[in-house]
Each structure stands twice: as structure tokens, then as C-alpha cells.
Amino acid sequence: MQKNLNLTNKTIIITGSSSGLGLEAAKRIASLNNTVIIASRNEKRGRKVEKEIGKNSYFMQLDVSNKESMDNFVKNFNKKFSKLDILINNAGIMLHPPKKTEDGTEITFATNYLGYFYLSLKLIPNLVSSSDPKIINVSSISSYHVDKINWDYFNPIKKISSFKEKREIYAHTNLFRLMFSIELQKRFNKKSVPIKSIACHPGVAKSQLGRYFFLAKLIYALPVMVSSREGVKSIIFSCINQNLNGGEFVGLDTKRQHRGNPTIVKPNPIVEIEDQRNKLWQMTSEKCGIDL
Ligand SMILES: NC(=O)c1ccc[n+]([C@@H]2O[C@H](COP(=O)([O-])OP(=O)(O)OC[C@H]3O[C@@H](n4cnc5c(N)ncnc54)[C@H](OP(=O)(O)O)[C@@H]3O)[C@@H](O)[C@H]2O)c1
After folding, report:
1. 42: CA distance to ligand 1 center in Å?
2. Per the domain annotation, does 109 fall within a domain?
């Protein structure tokens, strides 16, 4: 594991920390004497984790697929905490059965992507007063699977129901998270906002991610898979590595990046296309009703 010198006495929000990588990250970060906010949609599971971790952990209800819930979360956070050092956007779903949110948005798109965008922008005023503020955006190697962006996800005409469609939307949301992370840093630099925006991926690690699809559930529990403790290394690296300036994609140092040690990697070439990133920002900003 990396040195922990830069990760102590911080206040850190981790979305989706009631299971898998988020839970592992919460345990590890709390053990280093940081205050960890267990931002979980499920109160029962969130409280259980709060109790399990004990000292340094606070449950706060948050559903990242719901704007009102994110607004309430930020209000409640402001009442309770005077500073925020790191936001870790980690909550996510994969191969979810067809479902729309209350406002009619496809559930994977809302949870995996719009939630990252909206919550990050809402919490910027909290982050700027930290001495070393960061937004860590968890993405995936599935971001490499997109050859051409399908912009229809912003206004899906048909239900996402086949396995192929579910895989495609998952890959797209991971590409969007990454494009957002890099574009956010560019916009921070332009406006001299002192926050670092860093994207990372865990490889392929044991977790509850496959829960919505029988085969995936089996795969994500296979003994040959790396543990969530291993999988969380890139998230911790992104939190502590002082050589990161923001705008990086932290992946793993092996060919397929399924497992390995954290290192800066090249993203899908689409991420480098400024027009595509700007278009994504514009469309997301309009959809979420928020801008930097
Ligand atoms: N595991 C991997 O190999 C892998 C690889 C690449 C990327 N990732 C990414 O890593 C992140 C964490 O996934 P994981 O593997 O740890 O899976 P996981 O065990 O299923 O954890 C996902 C977490 O997200 C939470 N969540 C889902 N929808 C939410 C919502 N609307 N609001 C708030 N929280 C919500 C879940 O909460 P509940 O407990 O309430 O369901 C859970 O705590 C995901 O973004 C995933 O895309 C994972």
C-alpha cells in the first residue's frame, strides 16, 4: 500500500460506501484518522456501516440518481460539517433492469453519470476552502469499449432492456465520468479554482456490482477476482499521491488493467477530443440545470 502521509485529518465524502469498493475505501480512510461520510441511499445499510467502522464515520442519506436527495444531502452536510477536503464519486450500478427515475431519466445514466456531475458542482463551494481539495471520479476499463458516442442517452427514446444495451450504457457512463473529470480540471484551471479533479479505475475487483444480473453476480464473486481491498488501491493512490496535478486517469500497470498497481494511464482517445468533451459538458449542464 502507498504511504498515507497526505491522508489524515481530512473530511471525505464517499458516495456508495455501503458495499464493495466504497465500503473498503471508507474503512481504510477512516482508519487513517479521517472523517468519512458514508453517503448511502439505503439508511439501514448505511447505519450498519457507520456502526461497523465506528469512530470517524458518519452516515448521511444520499441517492445520487435523485436531484432533490442530492440537494438535501448538501444542506445536511453544511449543517454538520464546516469543511470538505475530498469528494469521492463512487456510487454506481451495472446491468440494472429497465427503470426510469422520477424525472424520466434512465437509471444507469442518472446514477453513474448525472449524479457525479451534479454533486461535484454542488460541493465546489465546500471544497475550495480546503488546503488540498480533490474530486476523485471512479470510472472503469469499460470506458475503453466505446468507439463512438451515442448521444441518445441524453434523451433515450427506447427502454434500455437487452444485455447489449445495458453493457453499452454502462460503458458510456464510464466514458462520460472520465470525460467529465478531465473537462472539470480544464475548467478549474481556466477559472483558477484550486481543486484537483482526478479519475481512476479499480480494474476488476470483487464487489456487489454484478448483483442485477445472475452471471455477473457469479463473476464478481469468483475467488480468482482480486479483493475489493486490492481494487481500492487506485482510489487511495488518487487521494494521496502528491505528484498528481489533476486531469489524470489513474489505472493499473498491466496490459489489460484488470489488476495491478496504480499508475497514470492513457484514456480512450475520445476523451482527448475537446469538442466532444465540450458537447458533453454543455448537454449535461443543461440537463442538470447547473454549471461551473
Ligand atoms: N468492482 C469492479 O470491478 C469495478 C470496476 C470498474 C468500476 N467500478 C465502479 O466502482 C464503483 C463502485 O462499485 P462496486 O464495484 O463497489 O459495486 P457495489 O458493491 O455494487 O457498490 C456500489 C455502491 O453504489 C451504491 N449506489 C448505487 N446506486 C446508488 C444511488 N442511486 N445513490 C447512492 N448510492 C448508490 C450502492 O448502494 P446500495 O448498497 O444501497 O446498493 C453501493 O454502495 C461503481 O461506480 C462501479 O461502476 C467497479
Report:
1. 12
2. yes
pLDDT per position as a tens digit, 229-255: 999 999 999 999 999 999 999 999 999
Q: Is residue 270 part of a domain?
A: yes
pLDDT in tens, 64-113: 999 999 999 999 999 999 999 999 999 999 999 999 998 889 999 999 99
Task: Say which residues have a Cβ less than 8 Å from residue 261's Cβ, sequence separation at least 6.
Answer: 233, 252, 253
Its domain, for residue 172, covers: 11-288
**Does residue 3 form part of some domain?**
no
- If one counts the domains in the chain, the total is 1
Atom of ligand 1 nearest to the CA of 24: 16
Candidate from 27, 38, 40, 42 with most ligand 1 atoms within 8 A of CB, to mutate: 40
* Single-letter amino acid code for the residue at 211: R
Residue 144 CA from chain centroid, whole number = 17
CATH number at residue 202: 3.40.50.720
CA distance 105 to 219: 28
| Amino acid residing at 234 | S
Mean pLDDT (the chain) is 95
Q: Is 58 helix (H, G, I), strand (E, B) or coil?
A: strand
